[in-house]
């Protein structure tokens, strides 16, 4: 079970991230449509060095018929104990290992997403799922703030203004006073007491406790 302090920290981060979510959703939606997916550098070059051709062939051969995660343990067993005779050889070994475990794309046949290689279709599918997950997270935050406002309008305002909109404590205190939510001369200690209470309530509403 999370402590009150942990609930407050997680709630703060969720609220701060809220303003980034629309653009993150758009980015994932673009990827789901096949736009913005980062394909291998090899696929964007018209000419490959002999070394790159060899690496691409090894990667394609090893990962043939494997659409998602690569054989990480097998790759580590094969290459983990090997060391190149010189710096160039070591770089080649590292690149091959990356292809084997699926952290590097191989030619035009793979797309690297968050350090893992997938087929283009799989990467687009994962992006669509991530966009949906981000939409659900944004809706959860918005609904929790609306629910909080139904019985603690002052607390919900504090969370929206300070964390979602990024206003300073002084600016939020002035806004509360101007709106009649607080008497003139509101003590900062009182403000922080209200804020902590609102963070914990928000935490309960999003299922943190």
UniProtKB/TrEMBL annotation:
Residues 117-154 form a coiled coil. Keywords: Coiled coil. This is Uncharacterized protein. It comes from Tumebacillus lipolyticus.
